[in-house]
Amino acid sequence: MTAPPPVSRRRRVYLVLMAVCLGLVLLAWNVVRFVSVPLAVAMSVVAAVLPPAAAFVANAGVRGDRGAGLERRPWDRRDPPDPDR
To answer: Which structural domain, as residue segments, surrounds residue 9?
Structure first.
């Protein structure tokens, strides 16, 4: 099993992916749409896929309990029922 990438590298890749996403959207709808609307739409579709991919990259190697935080909610009582009631 390999070690997860360091946080600084994951953060840098996340920021690059999000910058590319923003750049694609701005370029598509401020420049490319005058040349080719289908190409601008295709660029927007690629830009729409990048944020979830960036989130996967940012969370790569992070292990956590899926139920973490659930026991902290006041309405989520884990006490066994009272047998006398």
So the answer is: 1-33
Cα–Cα distances (Å) from 14 to 45, 49, 57, 64, 77, in that order, read 18, 13, 7, 20, 37
Is position 63 within any domain? no
Give ∠ CA 17-54-46 in degrees, rounded to 5: 65
Q: Which tops the pLDDT comparison, 25 or 83?
A: 25
Record the pTM: 0.67
pLDDT at 15 over 60: yes
Question: Domains in the chain: how many in total?
Answer: 1
Within a domain: 58: no
Does residue 76 lie in a domain region?
Answer: no
Q: What tokens were used for 57?
A: 């990259």
Query: What pLDDT is stored for residue 84 in this prediction?
Result: 72
